[in-house]
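Q: I'm writing a short methods note and want an example of a predicted protein-small molecule complex. Could you take the sequence and the SMILES for guanosine-5'-triphosphate and return the bound structure as tokens? Please keep the output block clean; save any remarks for afterwards.
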Amino acid sequence: MVHCSRKNFMIETKTMLTNPYAHAKFLKSASRAEQLPADTGYEVAFAGRSNAGKSSALNCLTGIRQLARTSKTPGRTQLINVFTLADEARRLIDLPGYGYAKVALQVKHDWQKNLAHYLDVRQSLRGLVLLMDIRHPLKELDQSMINWALDRQLPVHILLTKADKLGRSIVQNTVVQVRRHYELMQDFITVQAFSSLKKQGVDELILMLNKWMALEPLS
Ligand SMILES: Nc1nc2c(ncn2[C@@H]2O[C@H](COP(=O)(O)OP(=O)(O)OP(=O)(O)O)[C@@H](O)[C@H]2O)c(=O)[nH]1
Ligand SMILES: [Mg+2]
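A: Understood, no commentary inside the block.
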């Protein structure tokens, strides 16, 4: 399991950022969009293939080790997990991973329907953080998710996860390639490298989330 410490972050830029996500709390798990909290305020969802590192990234972002359950077994997060910030009108959502081959077809179908429905109806959803293992970016289902988001004009911030697994120049090249792929949509699609293990890219992610959550820019 990957751990991040619960502190203010002193990262890359050497600036000290206070982290509004350190106050996140688990609110509930929902198996259907109807069970979610009232659709008001600001919500940002973390989506991606099973095992891409969604739960680890949420734990890293918040600095709370056990906030979202991580697992070596893909397909662990099967429910929509809701976390609130200090202010309950702002929420982070850990979505079920998609694309895990060993899940029964019916279950897979149900998740995908759920995901599609959630993305379709949720008015408070301000942005999608889409996680992809940096070694296998832009799989077919990832591209479908992006197209879905674009269809409803929802901005997508791509996290190329597990960047610690590759050398620095391959990481940079992959970021550039994925950016280039969506060059024409750069107002809607942004791309960064991320590692929960090394706490790499947390500042950049916080800045994007703050923008979507209408939180004050950090000083
Ligand atoms: N090396 C490395 N391993 C990571 C990183 N992030 C996650 N992992 C590992 O990848 C595996 C899956 O991580 P999770 O965070 O549970 O992935 P998930 O996307 O939430 O998976 P599902 O809930 O099944 O959809 C775990 O074994 C993590 O420890 C990272 O930045 N670096
Ligand atoms: Mg998970």
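A: Remarks, as requested: Strands lie at 9-11, 15-17, 25-30, 42-48, 80-84, 90-94, 125-133, 156-161, 189-193. The chain has one domain: 2-213.
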